[in-house]
Every structure is written in structure tokens, then in C-alpha cells.
């Protein structure tokens, strides 16, 4: 076993995030979901009837990439496409009862995983929040933070490279953020 005590903090955080996501994806597989699918399903659930383009914008990916995720969700019966009443040529997405059920189970999986070992430690949680606050003041950090808050897990490199940090994050307010590490499957879709 390698001496991970000598690893950099970047390597430790990245490895832990990948391992957590791998475990999450393994449990989601039985629900017919992936991490990307849960993200899209959450957006559809929160917004009601919504276009594919709008889901892609909120999540921060190309419409074609989102199309693959949505096709998987539709094939598993998690979403349905309904004809738009405003434009009969286009379709809107809506979550099905099965999709709401799958989303609820995915949230339970997330909750269960968050209770493993030190992940359940409130001090660890607070330290991660502090790290996110601190990194949000560095170049690109603010954009990544705001993207995560808005549900956009993978901000475009153009935005990250051009962001100007012009405001502090209000640390007196509750903070929820998600850190996503792309798996090889995700990177092939982009």
C-alpha cells in the first residue's frame, strides 16, 4: 500500500472525490441513473416542464451532451417528453412518478454515503466549507462555486479562465456546494 500520508492535499481530495463518486455511481446503477442523470433529473424536478436546451444551460453542458443523458433517463421511464403547447413543433421534458421515486432514492444514497466514517464528522464538513470559501476567492473559484450552487457542475473553461473575483462569499449564510470529478465516461460525452 502506498504511503498516502505523503500525498499532496490536491491528490488526496481528488482521490477521495473520485472514490466517493464511484461508490455513488455503483449504487445509482441499480436505479438506472448516473451522476449526470441525477443532476438533470433534479433540474427537471425543480423546474417542471422544461426544454432540453434549458436543462443543458442550467447544468452547463452542450445540448447534444445533455441529449444522451436525457435519452437514458427517458429509456428508464424517469422522464417523459410532452409536446409544447406554445410551439407544437417542440417538446418539453417532465419528470415521471418513476423519476421522482428514483430521484428520492438517489438522494437517500447520497445521504447514506455522507454518513460514512469521517464524512459524517461535522468538523470535516465545516473544514470543507472553509476550503470552498477560501478557494472561491482565487481565480476561477468564484465561477466554479456559483456554477455548483446553480446546478452547473462543470463550468466552461472559458468562464473559469476569465472570471474576475469582485465580491466575497457571505460566510454568515448557509452554504451548500457539490464537488464533481469527471469520470472517463463523462469526459467522452463533452
From TrEMBL:
Pfam families in the record: MarR_2
Domain (HTH marR-type): residue spans on this chain: 6-137
UniProt keyword terms in alphabetical order: DNA-binding, Transcription, Transcription regulation
Organism: Rothia terrae
Native organism taxonomy: Bacteria, Bacillati, Actinomycetota, Actinomycetes, Micrococcales
GO molecular function: DNA binding; DNA-binding transcription factor activity
SMART domains, sorted: HTH_MARR
Any GO BP: response to stress
Presence of the UniProt keyword Metal-binding in the record: no
Protein name: MarR family transcriptional regulator
Coiled-coil spans in chain: none
Matches recorded under InterPro entries: HTH_MarR-typ, MarR/SlyA-like, Tscrpt_reg_MarR-type_CS, WH-like_DNA-bd_sf, WH_DNA-bd_sf
Amino acid at each position: 500500500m502506498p504511503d498516502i500520508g505523503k500525498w499532496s492535499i490536491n491528490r488526496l481530495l481528488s482521490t477521495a472525490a473520485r472514490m466517493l463518486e464511484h461508490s455513488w455511481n455503483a449504487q445509482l446503477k441499480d436505479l438506472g441513473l448516473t451522476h449526470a442523470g441525477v443532476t438533470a433529473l433534479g433540474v427537471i424536478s425543480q423546474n417542471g416542464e422544461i426544454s432540453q436546451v434549458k436543462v443543458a444551460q442550467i447544468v452547463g453542458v452542450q445540448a447534444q451532451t445533455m441529449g444522451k443523458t436525457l435519452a437514458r433517463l427517458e429509456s428508464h421511464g424517469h422522464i417523459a417528453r410532452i409536446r409544447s403547447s406554445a410551439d407544437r413543433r417542440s417538446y418539453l421534458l417532465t419528470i415521471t412518478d418513476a423519476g421522482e421515486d428514483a430521484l428520492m432514492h438517489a438522494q437517500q444514497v447520497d445521504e447514506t454515503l455522507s454518513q460514512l466514517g469521517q464524512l459524517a464528522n461535522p468538523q470535516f464538513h465545516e473544514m470543507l466549507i472553509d476550503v470552498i470559501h477560501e478557494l472561491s476567492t482565487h481565480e476561477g473559484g468564484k465561477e466554479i462555486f456559483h456554477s455548483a450552487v446553480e446546478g452547473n457542475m462543470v463550468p466552461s473553461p472559458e468562464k473559469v479562465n476569465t472570471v474576475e473575483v469582485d465580491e466575497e462569499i457571505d460566510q454568515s449564510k448557509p452554504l451548500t456546494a457539490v464537488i464533481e470529478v469527471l469520470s472517463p465516461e463523462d469526459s467522452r460525452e463533452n
